[in-house]
Amino acid sequence: MNRALHAVLSYLRSAPGTYLWLLILFFTTIALHQMSPGFERAFLGRRSTNIHELSTHPVRVLFQSAMYIDGGGWISYAALYTVFHAQAERWLGTLRWLCVAVLAHVLASFISEGALLWAIHHGRAPESAVNTLDVGVSYALAGVVAVLTYRIARPWRYVYLAAVLGVFVPPLFTDRTFTDLGHFASVLIGLACYPLTRGTGGPPWNPMSLAAPLRRYAPGNRRRNTGRP
Prior knowledge:
This protein has helices spanning 2-13, 16-33, 37-45, 51-56, 58-64, 74-92, 94-121, 138-147, 156-168, 171-174, 178-192, 212-216. By secondary structure, the chain is mostly helical.
C-alpha cells in the first residue's frame, strides 16, 4: 500500500499544473451542484466568454470560465486530464504546457465568439446570442490533445492526427455551432504550437513499445527451463 501510494503521489507531482486545475474544478463543480438551476445559470453567465462579457471584462471571464465544467461529470474530465493534460505537462514541462492550454482557450474563445458576432450582424443568429452561456475547459483540452501529435513517433503520429481530426471536423458540417468552430480552432492552435515542443528531450513515443513485454513472453521467445540458474 505504501508503494502504491508513493507511486500515485509521484505521478501527481509529475504534473502539478494539471492536478491543481483538476482540484479547482472538483470544488467548483461541487459548488455548482448546490445552486438552484436559475441561480447557477446567472452565476455562470457572469463568468461566460460570451460576446457581452468579452467586450466588457475579457481578462476576468477568460480566467473564470476555465474554472468551471459545462456539462459532463468531473470524473470524466479527471480521466481526460490524466490521459492528455498530464502527459503533455510531463512532456513539455509546466510552463510550455500552460502556454498551449492558455493560447487554445483564449484564441479559440475569440475566434468562436467573433464568428457568432458576424452571424448576428448578418441576421444568421438572434441578438440574444450575445449573452450565450459559454464556459468550460474544452478549448484548452482540444489544443493540448492536438499538440500531443508531436509526442508520437511516425507513422503513428499521422494515425493519431487522423483520429483527432475525425473527432473535431465532422461537427463543423453536422452541428455547425460556434463551439464546434472553437474546438476546431483549438486543434489548429495546438498544432501551431509545434515550436514549443522543440528541445523537450527524449525520443518520440512509439505505441509499439507497449507490445514489447508481450513479445518477450511469447511462446517462441521463452527460454526453456533447463533446471540451471
